[in-house]
């Protein structure tokens, strides 16, 4: 069973962290080829997604520029999973932790009874997220919160904001290029975000992509995980980043295995169940030292 595709750290992030000047030059070439200009004032700030929804981005920021080049889709696996799951699972509550520009949360329409919550720590992205929300057909059902999702409510979290590539902003580490701003962001738990909601008979869909802080987010939604009858989730798993947040990888996998059936994508984008795996078994199975992949979790 080939799983090589799951091992590659995202090309965009790897290039940006290791070779920011080279990567910026490559992005500029892509922009020039597509729009015939590098003049920021002449670049669009809005993308029409394949679903016909609109996504607003900052054309002066490299991840925003890549979204322009890629027509709003840089994570095709996530987008495909999200749209398919909304249509088939018909969630009644949705939580997107780590919204970024919103290419996931704004990728599709939602049932009229669905409540949608988005959490993003990077204040620089919020104006673009709000613009996208205001033109979305389900805008009255969508709540956007600027906070750092964690296992602690109303704390202060150090947050490293990468103004040049928003995808590497993180609370667990400063990108190696050190072109960052250090912010203090108030923390929130997903349990508190959904306080007052009747959880037991809901169908919850969530996404967590927070550069290594995934375990803390899950700890902060432990009440919901225990009480909600039906849950499906999409979690980024990057062993390097998770370790930088001082999280024990086996403890993280053990937590997931306690409540969920856990699946990982193989090289053909098929899902392989790994519910019984320890981290050592995972890396032995994959033949690698570090793992970057996406996990699908389904409540047992």
TrEMBL record:
<dbReference type="GO" id="GO:0032259">
    <property type="term" value="P:methylation"/>
</dbReference>
<keyword id="KW-0489">Methyltransferase</keyword>
<protein>
    <submittedName>
        <fullName>FkbM family methyltransferase</fullName>
    </submittedName>
</protein>
<dbReference type="Pfam" id="PF05050">
    <property type="entry name" value="Methyltransf_21"/>
</dbReference>
<dbReference type="InterPro" id="IPR029063">
    <property type="entry name" value="SAM-dependent_MTases_sf"/>
</dbReference>
<feature type="domain" description="Methyltransferase FkbM">
    <location>
        <begin position="96"/>
        <end position="256"/>
    </location>
</feature>
<keyword id="KW-0808">Transferase</keyword>
<dbReference type="InterPro" id="IPR006342">
    <property type="entry name" value="FkbM_mtfrase"/>
</dbReference>
<dbReference type="InterPro" id="IPR053188">
    <property type="entry name" value="FkbM_Methyltransferase"/>
</dbReference>
<dbReference type="GO" id="GO:0008168">
    <property type="term" value="F:methyltransferase activity"/>
</dbReference>
